[in-house]
Write a structure and sequence with these properties.
The complex is a heterodimer of chains A (472) and B (501).
Chain A (H helix, E strand, L loop, with lengths): L8 H19 L6 H22 L4 E3 L4 E3 L1 H25 L5 H20 L3 H19 L5 H32 L4 H7 L5 H19 L7 H8 L2 H26 L7 H20 L5 H21 L7 H25 L12 H4 L1 H15 L5 H15 L3 H26 L15 H19 L1 H8 L6
Antiparallel strand pairs in A: 1-2
Helix pairs in contact in A: 1-2, 1-4, 2-3, 2-4, 3-4, 3-10, 3-13, 3-18, 4-5, 4-10, 5-6, 5-10, 6-7, 6-8, 6-9, 8-10, 9-10, 9-12, 10-12, 10-13, 11-12, 11-17, 12-13, 12-16, 12-17, 13-15, 13-16, 13-18, 13-19, 15-17, 15-18, 16-17, 16-18
Chain B lengths: L1 H16 L7 H24 L8 E9 L4 E7 L3 H18 L7 H20 L3 H22 L4 H29 L7 H7 L7 H17 L9 H7 L2 H26 L1 H27 L4 H22 L8 H36 L15 H14 L6 H14 L3 H26 L20 H19 L2 H18 L2
Antiparallel strand pairs in B: 1-2
Helix pairs in contact in B: 1-2, 1-4, 2-3, 2-4, 3-4, 3-10, 3-13, 3-17, 4-5, 5-6, 5-10, 6-8, 6-9, 7-10, 8-10, 9-10, 9-12, 10-12, 10-13, 10-18, 11-12, 11-16, 12-13, 12-15, 12-16, 13-14, 13-15, 13-17, 13-18, 14-16, 14-17, 15-17
The chains are: A mainly alpha (472), B mainly alpha (501).
Chain lengths: 472, 501
């Protein structure tokens, strides 16, 4: 048993941050709970530093071959930790001096930990553990405010998650039965000889759980409700962070456990990608509230990212494309949410009229992030899309790239519906809908917007770091 | 040097962005004129230092995204240098024209400085991704120009413009990815790709790539049937915006044909040159006929742009038909096409600025409501007459040089098409003269506009100073074209050699 706990420092700092935070929070009076927040931020920073060190060490398998520490895990760690840090930044105004502030940050760290576990899991049992750890804290966070929409969101999220979690467990049982192992490496050897129908059912059932995690069609029903019902920082977190782990987990599963099975999972993923991007984009068209629009936009974005998964074993550039897109998506999506968090009294698109006049900086971040989500150069998501499309064409899925391009054009429409009032329209009367929430959300917005641009311009530095092969 | 030319406007925009808007509009427009003039001076210096026979000059290549095969690669040759010069000239003209810009001056100036960097960058880019980045950013910039400073149904027009050209740009991106994946090793570098000729003999794959690239460029150009975004965008844009849109942004499409489509896909281009010729002729005739039916002065000019762009498409198509023509004729057609890009940039830029005068005074472009303007505004009438005559291709102006070369170069390889396209000249001559006649001659009649004075003021100094130099350069090219042709000709010969591979 190769334990190597030293390889898991980023995960352990999150655990320590959560546990210590919980103990500390039980002691502290309400107005001093910011110490817990500070601790959470420090845990993220320490994790980032540890990952940076780990990247120099080279890949290895730990815990009896069930957890891979390779380029995908390290990239996943960095993206998740940075995204968590950003979310902490933009949740300060919302939960400051809340009676359960401590719980908020503890739950968030645990969910981040679960997500990181998903990225590295090379064993079906660890995968399901990560799934649960990344889900359960979020059910609680979705209903954190205890109001009617939040409770409804939480319940819907929980029911969907429980159902698809059980489905996933069933799939794992079937794959274990047919492949005689839960480790990916052994599964890859045994599954090609197993009965095809059983393997197919198992794959679909395991995928179902992961599709729930990433909010892709057909497991997407919770996304709009949670995004609208939960508080803005939770919505930002839920639509960004779990997707990172979920998508890397799907990639690792198909690339490591199923490379030579007789089931055409590649086409299945391609079809799911098309369904996800098309449905997400079409449903976003006539949304009038910004959070619902962003919710459907994230469903569409997942579709693009799934392109890289579909060609996981067919193209050399699929993995860097996936990881780069995830990084770019995380900062860009969080940037858009940070603007929403900064303007809590402007829930609808029309409320953004005259934003450029009142807050030119925020308007600039909004334009960068929304055009970034469209895929306009020189933002990070553009480069991500370029890589993903290249990978798709390289892997023989030209039609998929064409569909994705058509979807990109369609998506432009609803993002412009938001940009246009913010930049072009003049407010009719001086309204108080555009009153900013505070300093921290703005800092988060500027950071995310700048990072989104920087990723596009400095892609040459980032991409080589994401290039490598999965273990084993 | 070249990067300085490209990024000087952007750097100025960044500096101006921190100056508060309360300083006053004069300060912004003044700095804009200064920056645009400095940039033009740099371009002139680059032109003087350019050795026409030396191929690519001022080349610079920096690592950008090596793992994606993209680099920051820029350079100037006989195809791009004239476009860079026209771009910086037109932006200077727009800066001078906008000295009296009344509202939201700061953001207007910043946006145009940004657009200038983007446009110059596109014409110097020697990397497909760099080209694409600028291509897309130009759409974003122009969207805001139309949506914020336009009039009429500016929002809808801007959205239509954005959606159309963005679809085009994404088709272009697919084509670029196709080229990238075909090359071994994978690269987006235009020079490397043209050397490698990766799609030689690739059949359907090459045709699909050309189709994607062609659609992208055709939307931007625009040719029939992708031109429907152009008239509303032009009509509702502010004068300076229309001038840049017609003078610079449309050239991005035609420039793409000579920079990317022809040299990178030579065999496929030859195979489908006939289709291109037909699209060109249809654009020529359709643009001219629809322009004939317009009552709106600005919309009429917009449709003549479709017509003029059609000549360029005809020429690049004819240059691809190798059978039945000699190399010299095809090279002449390309030279004519590039000259036409320059000429159209100057003349249409001037015409749109002149149309802006009508709107500035009376808030209307409707030709039936104007009459006899030559009386109160003789300078305006005279300048417009010169621009109109130049635009219809009268000898002595740049348009004549361009169209003469296009027709001579295309005649042997695409005889019927060229003969048909000649009709386009006839129609445009008729419609432009008719417009001139209706607006400027006859009894004086001007539409009422709320809040405007009764009379019609003649050209103001800033307007004259922006429009007249454009026409003067058109005359210089028309009378002494050698300085321009000397630069273009070696490049078109090289291009023809590449296409004939």
């Amino acid at each position: 048993m190769n334990m190597h706990p030293a390889a898991l420092i980023p995960e352990l700092t999150l655990v320590a941050g959560a546990v210590l935070g919980l103990l500390l929070g039980a002691w502290l009076p309400r107005h001093r709970q910011w110490l817990v927040r500070l601790l959470a931020a420090l845990a993220c920073l320490a994790g980032l530093a540890a990952t940076a060190v780990a990247m120099g060490n080279g890949p290895r398998m730990v815990f009896g071959g069930s957890y891979a520490v390779d380029v995908a895990t390290n990239a996943g760690r960095i993206i998740v930790l940075a995204a968590t840090l950003l979310t902490i930044c933009l949740s300060i105004e919302t939960v400051e001096s809340h009676q359960r502030e401590t719980e908020f940050y503890v739950l968030m760290q645990l969910a981040a930990l679960g997500t990181i576990t998903l990225t590295g899991a090379a064993d079906l049992l660890l995968l399901v553990a990560g799934y649960l750890l990344a889900s359960v804290p979020l059910y609680a966070l979705a209903g954190f405010v205890k109001d009617a929409p939040g409770t409804e969101a939480s319940l819907k999220y929980y029911l969907m998650g429980a159902l698809l979690g059980v489905t996933m467990l069933t799939g794992i049982t079937i794959l274990y039965g047919t492949g005689r192992s839960t480790g990916y490496a052994t599964l890859a050897q045994n599954l090609p000889a197993a009965p095809r129908a059983a393997v197919a059912v198992g794959i679909v059932a395991v995928l179902a759980g992961l599709l729930f995690k990433i909010g892709a069609v057909p497991a997407h029903f919770w996304v709009p409700d949670v995004t609208e019902g939960a508080s803005t920082p939770v919505a930002a977190f839920v639509t960004t962070v779990p997707k990172i782990g979920g998508l890397i987990a799907v990639y690792r599963l198909v690339a490591e456990a199923l490379p030579t099975v007789g089931v055409n999972w590649s086409l299945l993923v391609a079809v799911l990608a098309v369904a996800s991007m098309t449905l997400g984009n079409l449903a976003a068209f006539f949304q009038d509230t910004v959070r619902r629009l962003l919710a459907y936009s994230t469903i569409g974005q997942v579709g693009y990212i799934l392109l890289a998964v579909a060609v996981a074993t067919r193209s050399e550039i699929a993995l860097p494309a996936l990881l780069f897109y995830l990084a770019a998506y995380a900062v860009t999506n969080l940037g858009a949410f940070a603007v929403v968090a900064e303007l809590p009294h402007a829930p609808r698109l029309v409320d953004y009229r005259g934003l450029a006049r009142r807050h030119p900086g925020l308007a600039a971040v909004l334009v960068v992030c929304l055009l970034g989500l469209v895929g306009t150069p020189p933002t990070g998501v553009f480069l991500g899309k370029l890589e993903v499309f290249s990978a798709a064409i390289d892997g023989g899925y030209t039609w998929l790239a064409v569909v994705a391009v058509a979807n990109t054009v369609a998506s432009l429409f609803y993002y412009l519906r938001w940009i246009a009032p913010a930049l072009v329209a003049v407010p009719e009367t001086a309204s108080d809908t555009l009153v900013p929430a505070g300093r921290w959300s703005a800092v988060g917005a500027y950071t995310a917007g700048a990072a989104s641009l920087a990723l596009g311009l400095a892609g040459g530095i980032v991409l080589p770091l994401l290039t490598g092969s999965l273990l084993p | 040097m070249l990067s300085l030319i490209v990024f000087l406007p952007l750097a100025a925009a960044v500096v101006l962005a921190v100056v508060p808007a309360s300083v006053g509009g004069r300060m912004f427009t003044g700095s804009w004129v200064a920056v645009a003039a400095a940039d033009l001076a740099l371009v002139v210096a680059a032109w003087l230092g350019y050795d026409a026979g030396g191929g690519m000059a001022y080349e610079q290549q920096l690592r950008w995204i090596p793992s994606a095969g993209a680099s920051y690669h820029v350079g100037l040759d006989g195809l791009s240098l004239p476009m860079v010069a026209v771009t910086s000239g037109l932006f200077l003209a727009c800066a001078i024209h906008s000295l009296r810009q009344p509202h939201r001056v700061k953001s207007f100036v910043l946006l145009f400085l940004f657009l200038q960097t983007v446009s110059l960058g596109l014409f110097t880019a020697l990397d497909l991704i760099l080209f694409f980045v600028y291509f897309d950013l130009s759409i974003v910039g122009m969207y805001f120009v139309i949506a914020r400073w336009g009039h009429g149904q500016a929002r809808q027009s801007a959205l239509k413009f954005f959606l159309y050209t963005f679809i085009g740009s994404l088709a272009l991106l697919l084509g670029f990815i196709g080229l990238y994946l075909a090359a071994e090793p994978h690269t987006f570098d235009i020079v490397a790709l043209s050397r490698a000729n990766p799609l030689a003999g690739s059949g359907t794959y090459g045709a699909l790539v050309l189709l994607a690239v062609g659609i992208g460029l055709a939307v931007k150009t625009p040719t029939v049937p992708f031109h429907t975004w152009l008239p509303p965008a032009h009509t509702d844009a502010p004068a300076a915006g229309s001038a840049i849109l017609a003078g610079v942004l449309l050239k991005m499409g035609t420039y793409g044909f000579v920079r990317i489509a022809m040299p990178l896909l030579p065999a496929t281009w030859r195979q489908y040159a006939g289709v291109v010729v037909i699209i060109g002729v249809v654009s020529v005739l359709y643009g001219a006929l629809v322009a004939l039916a317009q009552e709106d002065f600005k919309r009429m000019i917009a449709y003549t742009s479709v017509n003029h762009m059609g000549y360029i498409i005809l020429a690049v198509g004819a240059a691809g038909i190798v059978a039945g023509s000699d190399e010299q004729a095809r090279s002449l057609a390309i030279t004519g096409a590039v000259t036409q890009m320059v000429s159209h940039g100057l003349l249409t830029g001037a015409l749109f600025l002149l149309a802006g005068v009508l709107h500035d005074r009376r808030r209307s472009y409707d030709m039936s409501t104007y009459s006899g303007l030559a009386g109160p505004a003789p300078v305006f009438a005279g300048v417009t007459a010169v621009a109109v005559f130049a635009s219809l291709g009268l000898p002595g102006f740049s348009g004549f040089i361009a169209e003469f070369q296009i027709f001579t170069g295309s005649l042997s390889s695409a005889t019927v098409a060229t003969a048909l396209a000649l009709l386009g000249i006839l129609i445009t001559a008729g419609l432009l003269l008719r417009a001139l006649h209706r607006v400027f001659l006859g009894p004086l009649r001007i539409p009422d506009a709320p809040g405007a004075a009764r009379d019609f003021t003649d050209l103001r100094p800033s307007e004259a100073a922006s429009i007249m130099p454009l026409l003067a350069i058109a005359v210089v090219i028309g009378v002494l074209p050698r300085f321009l042709l000397n630069v273009i000709e070696p490049a078109s010969t090289t291009l023809i050699e590449m296409v004939a591979r």
